[in-house]
Each structure stands twice: as structure tokens, then as C-alpha cells.
Amino acid sequence: MKSGQVTIKDLAKELNISVSTVSRALADNPLVKSTTKKAVMELAKKLNYQPNFTALSLRSNTTRTLGVILPQVVHDFFSQVLRGIEDIAYSKGYSVIICNTHESYEREVMDAKNLVNGRVDGILACVSKETKDFTHFQEFKDRNIPLVFFDCVVDDITTDKVIIDDHEAALIAVNHLISTGRKKIAYVGGPENLLISKNRYKGYKDALLEANIAFDENLVLHRETGDFKDGAGAVQDLLKKNVEIDGLFAATDLLAIGALKELKKAGYSTPRDVSICGFSNWKISEIYDPSITTVDQPGYNMGKISSNMLFKQIENKDANHKAETKVLKTSLVIRESTQI
Amino acid sequence: MKSGQVTIKDLAKELNISVSTVSRALADNPLVKSTTKKAVMELAKKLNYQPNFTALSLRSNTTRTLGVILPQVVHDFFSQVLRGIEDIAYSKGYSVIICNTHESYEREVMDAKNLVNGRVDGILACVSKETKDFTHFQEFKDRNIPLVFFDCVVDDITTDKVIIDDHEAALIAVNHLISTGRKKIAYVGGPENLLISKNRYKGYKDALLEANIAFDENLVLHRETGDFKDGAGAVQDLLKKNVEIDGLFAATDLLAIGALKELKKAGYSTPRDVSICGFSNWKISEIYDPSITTVDQPGYNMGKISSNMLFKQIENKDANHKAETKVLKTSLVIRESTQI
DNA sequence: TTGAAAGCGATACCAC
DNA sequence: GTGGTATCGCTTTCAA
User: How many other CB atoms are there within 10 angstroms of residue A22's CB atom?
Assistant: First the structure.
């Protein structure tokens, strides 16, 4: 009973029976005499026995733990995804170990290495912005560790993926701006190398195309981040160019708000002069004054679907599993920033 | 080599040597002949051998893992705390398993039970709003599992704690409102049973006292949550009572913003008519229009200090450790909402 | 109905 | 230098 942990041995010794019997009794094995069983149960309760987690894991070669690798946790969207993951995991008696890479490639590699050695039964991952090399993820596949990508996925790795139809979402958002009579619509986007940025940008362009509005390179601003400051910076650049706009589609809510605040500084009112649409439906977009029209991403659902796919892999580890990609629909939330 | 995992046995068999030698070679033990060592190392690299985490844990009775129990992750403050914790943990080669209780007592108990069986080497915990019974935390102490509370702590359990001087922070914040000439200052607070709420409220009252401003019960509104909606609701109640205010101190930033927006609706401008101060310095308080004066909590530092205290406990597990409570200082960030 | 012993993957002590 | 074996805590055959 060293280090405060009561083991099955302690129970056996105390009751003068073998560890096998104790183990069986605790497992409520019908072979064990009911009096013995009762005695074991009672002592276990009395000494507050808890089976050692590590021993169980070693024996069963499972950890009842999922690993989640994601770039940020202070992020309304990811937090919803996490909730979805946790809800499914908890319902199956699994724990979740969250690795927060803080958008750092180095940290992501460390985290992956840390999870590769049998610490978890499966991995859910969303790759960071910085990541361009994916061998640390390939490692999971090589070791036959179940892996599901969500949101920011890796094309080169064949495994289950859950993504959002960013292209369609952007298309619908920009259509909405157009339908309210806007014609000179600017685009402010996040990191150009990200697939999600590319798709949102393409959605923007396609919406203009469909509406027969000429595409104008001058109205497009790709930024290094999806942050507030970059939204403001983008508008400054726009104003310097002296171009006229009456609408703005931003690839994140923070970009939208940064842009809005900067436009206001320059004397433009939203939605009157420039109507603005963001992306993600962060809480702030609801609270902001004016509230921001934005694309709602089904984060909770994405978490649930991803972990369900992961559990399917875990449960059929031997069977060869056909990788699947699920594309989730979004919806547009119309608020003050586009209501005229 | 079942389930894709290469073990020390596989290496031994392949090289026709014993597992002991392989183990020693991998540990770079000087007793091993260098040619043997080289052969082992090379084969290990070739087969991509990784020592099994669970076996290591069982052997050493340590998991090199910290458990963090907290009520929310989408929370600027907690996320900073987490970063502080992670930075220290990573630097010591530890992983962090985050249990997000979503402010639910039930979930908190589940999480605690889940961590009590040797899955982690120590626990960092911030209790949820709902929690009134603390036996699940006492369990850690009983089992001699290192435990540190941060932010929302449990008075009845003797262990290391890291808290913020909420009372002083509130005092300084309200002093600031008074110093800008405000005299009819309302208080909008979160759940009354929380220690942090009590202290912030007391800070508010003491600031008035010090300034010889009569305390007026009508200006005080305790709410069920610290959320945006409750801020708005509080102001609605205030307006119904037909009381005049020229300042407002809220126990959270979201309460502050909810109040501000509602006041604006009723025709009051901030800071001109009512200046407003929040608490926590969430990102939104910087971005909001107008930006919000608020109390900055040293979250990152709190995380670092907490985990350092935890490691001290882990490293001196046998020595009887004297519990300590650290109180961290805050600072006031003055922004537009109180600049006249 | 129960006990002895093997085994999960790794380390470390004791022989030789 | 190297191999055999006990051990960590638990489950599960195999024998009795």
C-alpha cells in the first residue's frame, strides 16, 4: 500500500484469499461464492480501492483516452468542437487529453510525438497554420493508431476527415451582401496558404461571378492572421488605395470587427455605408455593437461526428477501414451589420 | 509486434540478444559493448521503436502527466492560465490532460474520479460555480495525490492555493471610477455564492466607504451568471427602479458590455453619461466599441505559479509539505469606457 | 469455488 | 558484458 494506493494484493492479504479471487469478485464474476464476493466488495469500499489505471491500460492495451490536437482553445469554434468530442467520449467512458499547439509547428510535433507511444487509443487533429510538413501525423497511420482530421486537414494523408464547406458558406454570405444591393464588396482573408482561406476566397469570387459583378483585385486583401488588428490593417490599406466599397466579406469575425471599427474611424457607418459579414459566429459577433452578420459553423456537430468516426476506427482496428471525408453544411446568421 | 507497436522483445529477438541488453543499450548504459549498443540503436531507429508509455508508467509509478480541472476553456483568463501551466509542464517533460467541467458539478465529480486512480501525477483545479460539496477533491488529499487550487478555491481543503486579490482589484477599479468624478456607481455581479464574487463586491463597498459615498442597496445587482445577457438584464432592472447612475462596476467584462449595450439602448452614452468598468480584461474588452476599462488578471503567471507549486509537491511527495496560499496582484487597464 | 502462474512492456538486480 | 528473473497491478487461463 505504498504511496497511498490500495492494490488488489492488499485486499487479498487482508482477507487471506488469492488475488485471482479478489479480481474475480470485483468483476462480479458469478463463479465467486457470494459471501466471498461480499467480503471483498465491502473491504474494497472500506479501503476506498480504485483499480490502478496504468495497470489496466497495460493489460488491455487500451487507454480509454482520446488525444485531441488543435491550434487554440480560446476559440469559440474549437471549444464547441471540443464539447462535441467530449460528449461522445464521456458517453463511452473515455477521457480526452487536449494538446493545445498554440498554432506552433514545433509544439504540434512535440504533442504528436508525445501521443504516439501508446498513451491514447486514437487521435483527433486540426493542423496549425504553420504546419507544412506532416510526417508527425503520418506516424500515427504507420503505427496503426486511429486518426481523424477535422477543420484544417491534411490532404496527403489518407484517413477520415470532417470539414466544413467553406466555399459554399462564403458563396452564400457574399450572395447575401449582393442581395441587399451591395456591388463593391471587399474581401479580407486570413493566411493564404490555408485550405480554408482558399475556399472562402473562392466562394467570394464565385458569388461575384454568378451575380455578374466584375472581380476587382484592388478589393482583395489577404492577411497573415485572422485577427482583429489585421482587419483594421486591411481597411487602412484599402483606404490608402482610395477605392470605394459598400460591402465587406471577412474570413473571420475578428477581421470583420477590426475592419468595421477602422471604417467607422474613417467616417463610414455600418451597415449604412458599408455592410459587413464575418465568418464563424463567435460570441463577440453577437455582442458587438452593431451585431455582426456571420457564417455559423456547426462546431459541436463536427466534434460529435469526428469522434464517432474515430470510435468506429478504434472499434474495428483490424478490419481495413475505408477513409471517408464528411463535409458539413453551415448557415448564415443575419444581424445588424447587414440589415439596412 | 502486434497492433503495430515494436517492443523491446522484437528488438531482442531480431538481434539474438536478451531484452536486458536491449534495455541497457537503449538507456546508453556504459556497460554495454559499443558494437552491441550501435546495433540496437540502429535497429530501434529502423523499426521506429518507441518505449511503451503505459509500461513505463506502471514501472515507475509516475505518468509524467498533470491533470487540470477547470470550468471552461473558452475563457481568455483560463486559457492564459492553461498556457502558463502548459509551459511549465512541457519544460519538465510533462503532458497536460485538461478536464473541462463546463461549470457542471456532475462533470467535475466524474473528472475527479477519473483522475484519482493513478492516471496523473498531480492535479490543478479551479472549482465550478455549481460545486458545493468537495469530497471528490478531498479524495486527492486522502490518496496523497498532489493538488493545487487556483482562482476558485476550496477553503475547507488544506493544500496549496493560488488566488487573485479580487477585493483589492475591485477597490482600485471603483476608486478609479470615483476619481473621474462618478458618485452614483452601480454594482453588477456574478453568482453571489462564489468567493470571487463576494470579494469583488466587498471591494466595491469598501471603495465607496473610503470615499465617503453612501452605499445604496438599490444600485446593487447580483446575477446568476457573469454573462452578457445578465449584464443587460441587470440594467433593465435598474432602469425599472428609476434610479440614476453615472458609473457602473461589473464583476466580469461580459456583464459590463451587456450593461453598456442596454444603457445605450435606453439613451445613455458611455463614458459620457455612465462610465463603466469590467473585470478580467478579456480580448473583447479591448476590441469593443467603446473599448472597456477593466481589471487585468495575471492568468499566465497564475498558471506558472500554480504548476510550480504542484511540481514542488510532486518532487517532495514524502516530505510533509506545508500548504501555502499565494495571492496575486492585478492591474487596472484604463480604456475608453471611463475616459471622459 | 479457488489458487497458481503467465503475461502486458519495460527496468534493474543478481548471477556468471 | 550479458542473460535470467523479479517486479509494477491487474486479468485470465489452467488445474485442482
Answer: 27
- Tens of pLDDT along A254-285? 999 999 999 999 999 999 999 999 999 999 99
CATH of the domain at B269: 3.40.50.2300
- Helix-helix angle A135-142:A105-115, to 10 degrees: 10
Are B175 and B100 contained in the same domain? no
pLDDT of A335 higher than 60 = yes
- Which domain range does residue A78 map to? 63-163+299-327
Which 178-217 residues of chain A touch chain B by CB within 8 A? none
Amino acid at B251: A
What is the β-pairing status of strands A294-296 and A331-333? antiparallel
Complete DSSP assignment for B281-323 = --HHHHHSSS--BEEEP-HHHHHHHHHHHHHHHHHTSSSPPPP
Phi and psi at A288, nearest 5°, equal -60, 160
Q: Half-sphere exposure (CA, 13 Å, Cβ side) for A80?
A: 15
Give the gap in angstroms from C-alpha A210 to the nearest C-alpha of chain B. 35
pLDDT digit string, tens, across residues A11-65: 999 999 999 999 999 999 999 999 999 999 999 999 999 999 999 999 999 999 9
Please report residues of A whose CB lies closer than 8 A to that of B5: 118, 143
pLDDT reported for residue A2:
39
Q: Provide the CB-side half-sphere exposure for A172 (13 A, CA).
A: 16
Contact A281, A333 (CB under 8 A): yes
Query: B1 in a domain, yes or no?
Result: no
